[in-house]
Amino acid sequence: MRLIAQLKKTIRQYSMRTKLTISFSIAVITILMIIMILLSRLVNNYYQEKILFSADQSFEQANSFIQNYLDTMIYVSDQIYYNNDVQQLLSQNDLGKFQSYGEQYRDFLRLDSVCRTAELVETIYMARLFVPDQLTYSENMRHFEKMSVLENRKDYEIFLNNGGGSFFTAPEMIKMPGLNYEVEIVSLLRVILTTDGTIEPIGVQQIGIQTSKIKSVLEKSEITKSGIVYLVNSAGEIISCSDENNDLLRKLKQAGELPWPASSDSWSEVTVQKQSYYMNQAQLDSADWSLVALIPQREIIQQSKQLESIILVLSFAAVIAIFIVSSAISKYYTNRLSYLTEMMHEVQNGELDIDLKIKESDEIGDLFHSFSYMTQQLKLLMEEKYRSGKAVKTAQLQALRAQINPHFLYNTLELINWEAIDHNVPEISEIAKSLSQFYRISLNKGMEIVSLEKELNHVRAYVNIQNYHFDGAIQLYIDVPEELLQCSCINIILQPLVENSILHGMEETLSGEEYPIYISAKQVEQDIILSIQDEGTGMSSQQIKDIMNMKSLKVTGYGIKNIDLRLKLTYGEQYGLSYQSSVGKGTTVKIRIPFQPYRSEQQIKLDE
């Protein structure tokens, strides 16, 4: 009580200006500190949320890339699985037993060509077939390996227990013929079954990619220094990780405490080695692999502490400024601090594009500048995290675009055509011309709208190519009135239907027997009805539903459902596909589109 009385006595001796300065400063400083504390907490939480958001985006991109690698391996596996040469040669009853060396060598060349073609896919490092030991080319080791080698693999029993389906191996070191170094790969092992209906195993294929590709994706998905992203299978084996020298990973392996993915699909808190981490996981389709990310909480806290330090420094600067100028312009500075408080609330509400109108350059003006700098730095940091995540997808898009060079494709096909003519091989010349026409119409300079005549030429080119597979058995009959040929339609709507008719309808057609396909068109009021009719095996009503819902394995290319959706999205719900079919009698597909005259590319661009 005596201390309070002495303090009051001292204050009474001060001038009014000093009293106002002290009282104003105490009030303003108290309010300012409360604001700064709240701002510190809000910004800290907001910053942590943004870090986890950026980490989640990087994690999703890594998951997408790795899933794309797996899908590519399965796609290449399907190309080998359903290849005619593979099915024909490996299903021979006397394979390797009574064949001469010449016959085996011819078989080797055909199978080796299939594997080489598979390896042309950028992601694929190795394509190999496991064949009976008695074959002379079973020790080729580049594209062939003995079946006994497969049986001696330590994961062979696991592969068998998997039923011979798609089985992804753990990482292994291999040395390819002609190379003096080893490469680490992960592989897809898959039993090849006959496709003639007997479903008998005739071989095993192995599709491999380098783990370095997966590691590169994982490295780019890291956003913290001591965090880690790794890929693990159901047996707890590490497929790949972002940093093999990471202290956390080394400790986990030594202690045998490798975190197994949780059931949650979002970031959750886990304790590893008595330290807290944020963990996220995703189960990959088609493989027993899980992608796991661990981010130390202390690292996020340390980064957010830097913001708290900045806020603390700004708070001290504000206190000094208030004591210096409050005695002279207390009301003026109260208005300015109120304006600053309003801006802070906008930042608290997530509005970082604030416009601070600063005219003065005194201490409070410095506070405005510092606060503006802080918000701008925070905004730049968020934008940088966004750009770093976007750069990965941009690189993938550029890579995909670079793979398609129409001019190079056309020039190459033209070269093949002339080489075939020079060497008197008209069949190859005809295939090259048909394929060139097929892709010219398919790509169509990026335009989606073509004339009906071009769409029919697209089908003719496709059937010409297919007839080389089916010995000219496909007979295409087109009955379209002259006045409808220059009508417009979206591209690639007839070819997938003809392809489906060939693949599905010809499955029971005898070899050498003609298979007719009829395409007709007629105008009904303001619409055009296109019909594709075959005399194939036909379908049940359930099979038609499966096709329209993209459940049929017989449907390839764009997918029938996708064609129907494209038609409806382009022209309206009243347009699209309809099926009429009877088992054993054939199938008729009808396409309804509006009657619209075709306009050239130049006219379309002029209208736009």
TrEMBL record:
Membrane listed as a keyword: yes
A Pfam family hit: HATPase_c
SMART domains: HAMP
GO CC terms of this entry: membrane
Localization of this protein: Membrane
InterPro entries on file: Bact_2-comp_sensor_kinase, HAMP_dom, HATPase_C_sf, HATPase_dom, Sig_transdc_His_kin_internal
Protein keywords: Kinase, Membrane, Phosphoprotein, Transferase, Transmembrane, Transmembrane helix
A GO molecular-function descriptor: phosphorelay sensor kinase activity
KW Membrane (keyword) present: yes
Segments passing through the bilayer: 20-39, 310-334
Name under which the protein is recorded: Sensor histidine kinase
Organism: Massiliimalia timonensis
Lineage: Bacteria, Bacillati, Bacillota, Clostridia, Eubacteriales
